[in-house]
ATP-binding cassette domain-containing protein (Devosia salina), 605 residues
Amino acid sequence: MTDQAVSAASDPDKIVSEVKSAPRQLQPLRRLLPFLLRYPVRLALTILFLLISAISSLAIPAILGGAIDEGFVAQNIDMVGQYGWLIIGIAAIMAVASGARFYFISVIGERVVADLRQAVFSHLLRLETRYFDTHRVGELTSRLNGDTVSIRNAVGSSFSLALRSMVTIIGALAMMILTSPVLTLAVVVALPAILIPVMVYARRLRGMSRRTQDALADLSAMATEMLGANRTVKSFTQEEVQAVHYNVSSETSYRAEVKRLGARAFLVGLVIFLGTASLVGLVWWGARSVFEGSVTAGQLAQFLVYALMASGALTNVSEVLGNLQSVAGATERLTEILDTDAEIVDPAVPVALPEPPLGTVTFDKVSFSYGGQGGDNVLSNVSFSVGKGETVALVGPSGSGKSTTLSLLQRFYDVNAGTISVDGVDIRKVRLSDLRQRFAYVEQEPIIFAGTIAENIRFGKPDAGMDEVIAAAKAALVDDFVADLPKGYDTVVGERGVMLSGGQKQRLAIARAILKNAPILLLDEATSALDAQSERLVQLALEHLMEGRTTLVIAHRLATIRDANTILVLDGGEIIDKGTHDQLVAKGGRYAELAKLQFRLAEAV
Ligand SMILES: Nc1ncnc2c1ncn2[C@@H]1O[C@H](COP(=O)(O)OP(=O)(O)OP(=O)(O)O)[C@@H](O)[C@H]1O
């Protein structure tokens, strides 16, 4: 907790303002309503069974009252038997209705959670790169799992309990009035003595639940990050340090949860104590009424059972309130994601790209900063064009803006000034999917998914036939090593392709790009050196991929640079020189220095 938060928590003005905003705390739950209303039939059935079970449970005490007065007091065993059968019959109806209610509400809970998860996941996938720059993936997955599960529990049990308790309270109160208005008046007068302390205390639970969920999300983000980086952790022998970090966070989360549980336990205890104490008072008052003859013994028994039912339902409501507050927190966090609008979206009236594709790219006076308008420019006034089938190499020191150029071209971010065109059309005027279909992107560290080799190759074209997959694999020289794998193309390669070598992963990524068969190739060459044999294979695979395609390549290999039609030299986000390798070396400027440092000059000799 920050110092600010600590002082805010102990600030009486703050507490008063929190109390005033109390009804707003449950407001996020309203956002669940559309998800629930999608299933009107199941919802109606739930309410129907809920009413049947509540009404039948409310009938039992009245019958019991009759059995006492007409059976026990009148000493008529036949009446006791008749009433007994009636109670068994009603109990059977109640049992069936309760079971059905439980089933339907649980199914709705599962359904809502599945819908919510799907909605949040597909929304997340559509959000732009900038969103992921500022949000931890581990935290997002924790929202997707933990928060949705707590919503499921709420819908499946808390909502149902709240509804049932409310019906019971109303029904029991009505029956109490019917049985004895005087006794009911006594209860109603005593009621605020229970309710006020409970409501005041329930407020304390607020905030606590959001804090425990935040602590949990932090914990999950930390685990995701460290387990994902387990090789780095081992190699830097950070197992113990990271375990200690995790333990500290886990203890924080534990303490926050214990604090919340303590507060809840106290709340439940408070309700039970106040409820029981009032009941004792009621029995005393009721006994006097029986002795005075204003109510019968049966009526008193019946009244007491109703009062017990109502107080039990009140206890439930207090528990549910605590629960619902934490669910409101979870709902708020999920709807926060759903409410985040994507900034980079399709234009209202998209312009079609020319068919067949030309494969040209133009940057016209492009400036860009990651901080939006007014931030420090990462690219300034960059202009260049790439003609059909040409290869343009981007070179420059680290941080000069090479990767940013490729990101802007794919519209992962929007430019702050200037225009980027593909096939002569401003990319902001084109549908995003149409634009991205024009590129095959091979990343520096290729992303390999946990599926099979074939699934990885098919990633950009899921409906490709096996013959197409094999053709791409052959061109990318993946076929050679696949032949040695136990299950061939159906071999599962492990998370992030851990079962493959660096060169094999690169060739697999190249095969994926070949299968996509896009007119423009965006290539971020690996900086890490492969052994000569592997390097040669990757190079060969790349040559197949580049054939007949316009290529923009962030180049680290001398061979690539030498073959490029044009080299753009970037420095500090500006193009400081352009030309062929020989021209630029002859000039002897910044490029020549860079070439010495960056490209494996050994290759040149
Ligand atoms: N997502 C991001 N958010 C904020 N700043 C970023 C982001 N990505 C890159 N930058 C910054 O933009 C500048 C250019 O980065 P870029 O990755 O384009 O350089 P690069 O030339 O590709 O470098 P390298 O060769 O090291 O990959 C750097 O100063 C970097 O810190």
